[in-house]
Design goal:
The protein is an alpha+beta fold. Strands 1, 2, 3, 4, 5, 6, 9, 10 and 11 form a nine-stranded antiparallel sheet that branches. It has a two-stranded antiparallel sheet with strand order 7-8. The protein binds a DNA duplex (13 and 13 nucleotides) through strand 4, strand 5 and helix 5.
Length: 207
DNA sequence: CGTTCGATGCACT
DNA sequence: GTGCATCGAACGT
């Protein structure tokens, strides 16, 4: 495995759209008690400031969104729809609430472990994950499940510790496009979703 | 193909 | 009580 360096806090202390664009091609790794899994980021969304109606900071500071107001480079992990953990990287600076949501990964390490974590019991009693490798981390709720990310990782630094974002030794240039964000009912006028064009692990496309 | 809808927990009004 | 930064099964065409 070639060397990969964790991104320093200064990487995140920049305009959020710039951080979002630069996160494409970086590697998200989680070293959990039950094993390590990692994937290359292929889809992200930016949520920027109290003026962004889709950002959790839109209504001002609360207990839940406190990490958004804190220092850049920490993880903001929250529970949504009663069953999905979603992971963000906090950006900008103290007092400027913003983050980048990680929406999809191309699996590169621990694929068997990802399959085990995604496995589900069917009516027949069979256990397993029916999809392809590209489906394992396709979508923000799916990737946290595949990597074993939960609320335990909330507010943890992304440059050290079990959950990290790293710059791979080789980072092939891929065509990136921007679109409105997915799954929100407000703020759709802002094209703040970045994704690798045509990549099979990107969400919001047919199987 | 397409669209609808239930699951499921919690922050916030 | 309402509404989610979702997912996938279950429908209808």
């Amino acid at each position: 495995m070639p060397p990969a360096r964790p991104l320093p806090p200064s990487f995140y202390a920049r305009p959020t759209l710039q951080v979002a664009a630069d996160l494409i091609g970086m590697r998200l790794r989680h070293e959990a008690p039950d094993g390590t899994a990692a994937g290359v980021i292929v889809e992200v969304e930016a949520y920027i400031g109290e003026d962004d109606p889709a950002c959790h900071a839109a209504a001002g500071p609360t207990a839940r969104n406190a990490p958004l107001y804190g220092p850049p480079g920490l993880a903001y992990v929250y529970f949504n729809y009663g069953m999905h953990w979603l992971v963000n990287a906090v950006t900008e600076s103290d007092g400027a609430p913003a983050a980048v949501l990680i929406r999809a990964l191309e699996p590169v390490e621990g694929i068997d472990l990802m399959r085990a974590r995604r496995a589900s019991r069917r009516a027949s009693g069979d256990i397993g994950f029916a999809g392809t490798d590209a489906d394992l981390c396709r979508g923000p709720g799916n990737l946290t499940r595949a990597l074993g990310i939960t609320g335990t990782e909330n507010r943890q630094p992304l440059w050290e510790g079990p959950l990290r974002i790293e710059r791979p030794a080789r980072r092939p240039s891929r065509p990136v496009a921007w679109s409105p964000r997915i799954g929100i009912r407000v703020g759709q006028d802002r094209p703040w979703r970045a994704y690798v064009v045509g990549h099979p692990a990107v969400s919001g496309r047919p199987r």
